[in-house]
Amino acid sequence: MSVVKVSRGRCLLQYWIDLRGTSQAEVARRSGYSPRMVSFYCSGDKPMSVDAMYIISKILDIHMEELYEWVLK
């Protein structure tokens, strides 16, 4: 049996923000993260922590896994 390895691909946060008709500022306000941090997440400059993924996924009404493209290795 082989070990399954996975890594994060592209962040899809901006896609979900747009799809939900909201804004980075609104996600920041509701999550408690700074607008700058949400911008970093959207651009892929900083990966989201598990806590951030959980909180933001609840705000956007999606599964945590949907915040990134996932790459199987």
Q: Report the sheet with the most strands, covering strand number, pairing sense and barrel closure.
A: 2 strands, antiparallel
> What's the CATH C level?
Mainly Alpha
Q: What are the secondary-structure elements, in order, as H or E?
A: EHHHHE
Write down the overall geometry.
Answer: elongated
Strand order within the widest sheet? Answer: 1-2
CATH domain fold name: 434 Repressor (Amino-terminal Domain)
What portion of residues belong to β-strands? Answer: 15-25%
Q: Would you tell me the overall average pLDDT?
A: 96
Question: How helical, in percent, are the residues?
Answer: 40-55%
Counted up, domains total 1
- Poorly predicted regions are none
Structural class: alpha+beta
CATH architecture: Orthogonal Bundle
Explain briefly what this protein structure is:
The chain has helices at 13-19, 24-31, 35-43, 50-60; strands spanning 6-11, 68-72. With 73 residues, it is of the alpha+beta class.
Care to describe what's here?
The protein has 73 residues and is of the alpha+beta class. The chain has a single domain (6-72), classed as lambda repressor-like DNA-binding domains (434 Repressor (Amino-terminal Domain)). The chain is built from four helices and two strands. The protein has helices at 13-19, 24-31, 35-43, 50-60; strands at 6-11, 68-72. The protein has a two-stranded antiparallel sheet. Helix 2 crosses helix 3 (35-43).
Provide the fold topology.
Layout lengths: L5 E6 L1 H7 L4 H8 L3 H9 L6 H11 L7 E5 L1
Antiparallel strand pairs: 1-2
